[in-house]
Amino acid sequence: MIEVQHPPHAASLLESMRSIGYTLDSALADLIDNSISAHAREIHIEFRPFDNPYIAIIDDGRGMSYEVLQNAMRHGSKNPLLERGEDDMGRYGLGLKTASISQCRRMTVISKKDADINAFCWDLDVVIEKGAWVMLQLEISDCEALPHFSQLVTKKSGTMVLWQELDKLLVGEANPENALGAKMLAAREHLALVFHRFLAKEGSKPKISMVLNGSSIVPFDPFLVNHKATQPLDEEKFSVEGKKVVVKPYILPHISKLSGNDAQLIGGNEGFRSQQGFYIYRNRRLIIWGTWFRLARKDELSKLARVRVDIPNALDHLWTLDIKKSAAHPPELVRLNLKRTVEKIRSVSGRTIAFRGRNTSDSDIAPAWNEVLDRSGIRFDVNRNHPLISEFSKSLDKDGRARLNLVLGVIESSFPADALYSRMASDIRPDFASDSAVENINEMISNILINMPVDSPTKKQLLMSLHLIEPFNLYPELTKQIIEEYNS
Questions:
Q1: Whole-angstrom Cα distance, residue 308 to residue 251?
Q2: What residue segments make up the domains of the chain, in order of their start?
C-alpha cells in the first residue's frame, strides 16, 4: 500500500468554506470569543459603510507573538479533541478564519505583544491567483495604511481583525450603506444577548466593555433577574463525566407587570411564546436558546418559563457543538435531568399566567369567577357568593333575583374562552386597568354602598374586606381611597 499526499485545492476549499452557514451575528460573536479568551477587557467594533466598507474588531487582550499569530492564521490551528483551558471559548481552530471569510474576501489580523507588532492577511483573490495556500505577511508600513491601526498601537497589547471587500455580507443589496448599517444594528442586539453575562458584573468575574462605533453595548438579560416580579426557582446541579452542569430556572413576570419596553425586549419580534425554553451557556457565553429540545412543546402555559443551563467546554463532544457555536444538542443523561426541570417549571409558569393579580397561596381572596372542572373540561362560573353580587341579590325581590341569575347565566355561557386564549397567545397587553375600568369600579361600589345606612354592620364588614374582593384587590391604591372615603 502506497501513501499519497493529496492536499485540497486551496481556492476551491476556501470558497466552499465561505458557505458554512455563518451569519454576520455569529461571525462577529466568534471573533469576540477570541478576544475574551485573550482576556480582553475592552472590545471595540468599528464599521464604515461608505467608500470601501469594512468592519474592524480591536481588543486589548494579551496579543500574539509572531509564531502564535502565524499558527492562529492556519486553518485547523488546534485539534478539537485536545483538552482546552477552562475559560477557552474556542474549539475547532477554524473560527477566526471561517467566520471572517464568510463575510469578506480579505481578512487581516494585526497583533501587538511585548511592543512587537505582527500582521498576516488572507486574501482570497491572491489564493486564486497563486493556486496555493499563500498568506500575506504585512510590514509596518502596510499596517499604517489600514484603518484603526493607530488605535491598536496605543495599547499595551491587543489584536485587531479587519474585514475588507465585504462581498458576501453585502451581496444583492441595492443600497450597501443602508444595508450594512441595518445589519450592524441587528448585530448589536445579538451581541447584547449572547455576551450579556460578560457585559455585566457576575460574581468575581470581571466586566467586559464592548463598544460599537463609539456607543457602548448594553447587556440584555433574557431572564429579567433584577425585575421584582421575576420568580427564580431552585438551582440544580448534576455531573456528566465528572463535569458539573448547572440548571437555574426562572419564571418571567406576567406581561401585565412589565413596562412596554421590557415586554418588547423580552419577547422580541417573535413574542414570549417562541422564546420560552432552555438557554444554554458554554463558559457563560450563550450558544442556543428558546428550545425545549423536544422534551416539551411550546404552549401558552409555559411561555413565561426560561431555564439557564451552564455547561463547561469539556463536554463539547457530548453536546455535538457545531463550528459556529450556535447549535448544540444535549446527551441522554443531560436530557433526563432537564426533563425533570421542565415538568416542575411548566406548572409554575401556568399558575403565573392563570392567576394574574391573584395570590394563589392566599385562600382569603373572594374571586369574581370560579374555576369548575367537570367531565367535559374546564369552565368558569360567576361566583354567586361574591360579596357585591350577594349584596345586590339581597336588594332584589324574588323575580329580580331570577332575572339576575338569568343574566349571569348568559354571561357564563358566552364566556369568550377561545378569543381570550388567542389574544393572550399574541402577547397583546391586557387593558383591565384602563381609565374606564377604574370608573366602573368606583360606580360599582357607589351603587352598592349608597343605599346602606351609615352604621350598617354589613357596610362596615364589606369595607373591611374590600381589599380581599375581586376586582378591588387588583387596585390597592384605589381600594384604599374608597375605604377612606366611605369611612369618613
A1: 11
A2: 10-216, 231-354, 369-487
178-227: pLDDT as tens digits: 999 999 999 999 999 999 999 999 888 889 999 999 999 999 999 999 99
State in Å, rounded, how far the first CA of the chain is from the last one: 105
Q: How many CB atoms are closer than 10 A to CB 439?
A: 10
Residues 6+ apart with CB under 8 A from 471: 368, 432, 437, 441
8 A C-beta contact, residue 136 and residue 123: yes
Burial (Cβ within 10 Å: 0-12, 13-18, ≥19) of residue 324? buried
d(C-alpha 31, C-alpha 29), whole Å: 5
Is it true that the peptide bond before 8 is cis, omega within 30 degrees of 0? no
The CATH class, in words, for 231-354 is alpha beta
Evaluate whether 245 touches 220 at the Cβ level (below 8 Å). no
Give the confidence band of 421 by pLDDT, cuts at 50, 70, 90: low
By CB neighbour count within 10 A (0-12 exposed, 13-18 middle, 19+ buried), where does 327 fall?
A: middle
**How many residues would you count in the chain?**
488
Nearest to 312 by CA among 238, 221, 220, 250: 238
Cell of 284: 457563560
Q: Which amino acid is at 41?
A: R
* pLDDT computed for residue 111 by the predictor: 97
Q: Does domain 10-216 correspond to CATH entry 3.30.565.10?
A: yes
CA–CA distance, 57 with 72 (Å, rounded to integer)? 16
Cell numbers given for 282: 458554554
pLDDT for position 212: 98
Q: Which residue has the cell 473560527?
A: 95
Nearest to 96, CA basis, from 40, 28, 156, 150? 28
- Cα angle 427, 431, 437 (rounded to 5 degrees) comes to 165
> 372-388 pLDDT, tens per residue?
766 566 778 888 888 88
